[in-house]
Amino acid sequence: MYFISTLITITLAALAGITLASPAGTGATPVSEISTPPAPEKVIPTIPANIVATEDGTCGIFKNGTTCKDTDHGACCSHGGFCGNGPSFCLEGCQPKFGDCGKAAMGSAAPAAQLAVLPI
């Protein structure tokens, strides 16, 4: 029971940024002496010099660097690396180096039936 109580106390103190001394005679390392591991380095992929059109509808920096432009998969490249024409592809997170982005791009591959003007 002492161990669980001590563990909870140390954990709460660490979260609150409080320095605790180890109980006398326990040989435990004080919280203030425990080092945190360094943050992992971020890997930033490079954009290929020769960007080619996707064949399978995947695109972007993490999907072989292919583009959606001039394909039947949609003009926009989503944050997740897929081609399409909806808001989830063309707006927030859109990858402009691998496809068109913005509201104007969402209608770039719309079927003609959706653009027809109907009489009133």
Automatic annotation (TrEMBL):
A GO molecular function held by the record: chitin binding
Signal peptide (UniProt feature, chain positions): 1-21
Domain named Chitin-binding type-1: residues: 56-103
S-S pairs: 76-90
Source organism superkingdom: Eukaryota
Keyword Oxidoreductase: no
One Pfam short name: Chitin_bind_1
Keywords: Chitin-binding, Disulfide bond, Signal
PROSITE patterns cross-referenced by the UniProt entry: CHIT_BIND_I_2
The UniProt record lists the keyword Signal: yes
Protein name per the record: Chitin-binding type-1 domain-containing protein
Protein source organism: Pyricularia grisea (Crabgrass-specific blast fungus)
